[in-house]
Amino acid sequence: MSEAPKRTRVVWTETAVRCLETLPKKVRAGLLAKADELEGCDDPEAVHKPLVGPLAGHHRITYGRYRAIYKVVREELANGEMLYTATVYFIAAGIRKAHSKDDVYRLAEKIVGMGIVDPEPPKS
Questions:
Q1: Rounded mean pLDDT of the chain?
Q2: Nearest-angstrom CA–CA distance, 116 and 93
Q3: Within a 10 A sphere around the Cβ of 118, how many other Cβ atoms?
C-alpha cells in the first residue's frame, strides 16, 4: 500500500498579518519569501529549524536577525490524504538579542505562556 499523498498550505493568522505590517519592507519580503518555501513542500517541519525549550513544537523562519515563529498542524482528510497545515503564528517578530530582556525569543515565550496567540486561524 502506498503512502497517502501530502499537501501543505500556509494559513496566516490575524496576529501574523499585523506583525508583518510593522516590519521594514525588506524584512517583511524576506520573511514572506521564506514562508513561501512551506507552500507545497512534502514536510514543512523539515524546511526550517525546530525550536526547543518553552517553544518546542514550533519552528523558526530566520531573516538576518529577525525571526518568525510558526507551528505545523497535521490533519487527515476523509479520503485518507494527509494535509499538513503550516499555520504561521507570528508569535513575535523582532531582532535576536542574546541575553537581553528585549530578545525576540524571550518575548515569544511570554506570549505563548500567557496564551494570547490566536487559537484558530482566520476564516477564509
A1: 76
A2: 15
A3: 15
